[in-house]
């Protein structure tokens, strides 16, 4: 019998084309997702070399970062740099004959939401994109790497990627989550525990009862932030929840092909006794709704906590905490629930899926957004938007005073008109709270969709359990 393998080992081994003596491998890539920010130079490189895209049928492009999300967006993009990037993608998609969802297409949205939604992302695949949050696709038990622009060109030209294998890390969430606690709280709590470097050099497999109990949407939220924990990728073994989600999607296999795929997908789990280089365990029952207080995704505390003092930390983190508190305009000892919020952003590839909007709408229903608050809901794709309208969620948000937007990355990062002004403070369902991330001198508190909704109603960071 062969040695027991992890899920990561299995997918890796199935994709190695060749291996050098030093362990550098050439990996076959099953899906290449492309957005407008990291691809222009890559396509230009192909043009200069007179090359074609090697596998256009496995290459999928969609503009997301730079697109405005206001209803008037068909009038074009005002910012020149943004407009040029999106126009370049339009042209490159046409010239190279790849799959494309332009801004005018109802299926357009954030690349990590569109891929799974359209059935491009499947278990056991290798998926790459010139974007760090490609880890999202690991929720299907696919090995999903973020890559740089020169690698984008390499994959476009050859459908392969040069990689060294990472180590195996297991993150187990045991037991059940308590009411009001979501996938976002899990993934933030994990980073709170491991730090942003905890996963460095590793691919994380998330497992345990609390992970098994999550929907595909929740699993994508968890894997999305693997990169924020420093990992190369995040993975969850596929199961009935996965197969059910995939079945019938436009690009998923059909009929006999589905059955054949299914019999392989069912082998995609970590064998009994397989070796992990690092193991982290959290108890599901002990996870509370969390928020970030600082400018790193590891600055996580339960909402019942208080703003920490620099002296609570050790080493380099003391200075970092000082700087964070200064930037965030917070005083040690202040209750987290006393932090006043002026902006709420519900969206992004972390939390812009239908389940996220349902969770937020559940809290918002019949209530009003606090006076003076700017609150927006930005569905992750045109199809999520449509579904939310059909389910009556859009109306709940609109009635409460939220702006109801078109799909895109929006206020997750300051590359489009949705930005914070200096000093503004946002409860955001996105994944990064770096300085300036949502706009120059803007302040970001990362939270779940339900927690963001609660803050929109009360005007301050709020324990969502009080509104349930
Ligand atoms: C613009 C893009 C390259 C970037 C990433 O790689 O993640 C963005 O999506 C982000 O979230 O910061
Ligand atoms: S939604 Fe945010 S994290 Fe996701 S791809 Fe867009 S900018 Fe990056």
From TrEMBL:
Pfam families: Aconitase (PF00330). It comes from the Bacteria. It is an enzyme of class 4 (lyase). Its EC number is 4.2.1.33. GO terms for molecular function: 3-isopropylmalate dehydratase activity; 4 iron, 4 sulfur cluster binding; metal ion binding. [4Fe-4S] cluster binds at residues 349, 409, 412. Binds 1 [4Fe-4S] cluster per subunit. PANTHER family: 3-ISOPROPYLMALATE DEHYDRATASE, HOMOACONITASE, MITOCHONDRIAL-RELATED. Catalyzes the isomerization between 2-isopropylmalate and 3-isopropylmalate, via the formation of 2-isopropylmaleate. Belongs to the aconitase/IPM isomerase family. LeuC type 1 subfamily. NCBIfam families: leuC (TIGR00170), PRK05478.1 (NF004016), PRK12466.1 (NF009116). This is 3-isopropylmalate dehydratase large subunit. The lineage of its organism: Bacteria, Pseudomonadati, Pseudomonadota, Alphaproteobacteria, Rhodobacterales. The gene is leuC.
């Amino acid at each position: 019998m062969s040695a027991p393998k992890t899920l990561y080992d299995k997918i890796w081994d199935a994709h190695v084309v060749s291996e050098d003596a030093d362990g550098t491998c050439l990996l076959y890539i099953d899906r290449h997702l492309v957005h407008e920010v990291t691809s222009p130079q890559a396509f230009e490189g192909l043009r200069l070399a007179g090359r074609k895209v090697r596998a256009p049928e496995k290459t999928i492009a969609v503009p997301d970062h730079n697109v405005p999300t206001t209803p008037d967006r068909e009038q074009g993009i005002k910012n020149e740099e943004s407009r040029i990037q999106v126009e370049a993608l339009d042209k490159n998609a046409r010239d190279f004959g790849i799959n494309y969802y332009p801004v005018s297409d109802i299926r357009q949205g954030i690349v990590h939401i569109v891929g799974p939604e359209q059935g491009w992302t499947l278990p056991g695949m290798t998926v790459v994109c010139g974007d760090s949050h490609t880890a999202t696709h690991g929720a299907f038990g696919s090995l999903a790497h973020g890559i740089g622009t020169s690698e984008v060109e390499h994959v476009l030209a050859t459908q392969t990627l040069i990689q060294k294998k990472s180590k195996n890390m297991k993150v187990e969430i045991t037991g059940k989550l308590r009411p009001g606690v979501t996938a976002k709280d899990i993934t933030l709590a994990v980073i709170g525990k491991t730090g942003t470097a905890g996963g460095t050099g590793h691919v994380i497999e998330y497992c345990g009862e609390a992970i098994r109990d999550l929907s595909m949407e929740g699993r994508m939220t968890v894997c999305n932030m693997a990169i924020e924990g420093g990992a190369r990728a995040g993975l969850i073994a596929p199961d009935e929840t996965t197969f059910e989600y995939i079945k019938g999607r436009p690009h998923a296999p059909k009929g006999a092909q589905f059955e054949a795929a299914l019999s392989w997908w069912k082998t995609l789990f970590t064998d009994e006794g397989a070796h992990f280089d690092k193991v982290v365990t959290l108890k599901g029952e002990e996870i509370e709704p969390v928020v970030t207080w600082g400018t790193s995704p590891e600055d996580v505390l339960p909402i019942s906590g208080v703003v920490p003092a620099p002296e609570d930390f050790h080493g380099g983190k003391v200075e970092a905490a000082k700087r964070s508190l200064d930037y965030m305009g917070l005083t040690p000892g202040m209750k987290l629930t006393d932090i006043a919020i002026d902006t709420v952003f519900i969206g992004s590839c972390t939390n812009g899926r239908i389940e996220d909007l349902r969770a937020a709408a559940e809290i918002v229903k019949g209530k009003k957004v606090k006076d003076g608050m700017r609150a927006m809901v930005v569905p992750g794709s045109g199809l999520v938007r449509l579904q939310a309208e059909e389910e009556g969620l859009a109306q709940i948000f609109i009635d409460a005073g939220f702006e109801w937007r078109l799909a895109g990355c929006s206020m997750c990062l300051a590359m489009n008109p949705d930005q914070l002004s200096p000093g503004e403070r946002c409860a955001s369902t996105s994944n990064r709270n770096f300085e300036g991330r949502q706009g120059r001198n803007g302040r970001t508190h990362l939270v779940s969709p339900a927690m963001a909704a609660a803050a929109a109603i009360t005007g301050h960071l709020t324990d969502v359990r009080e509104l349930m």
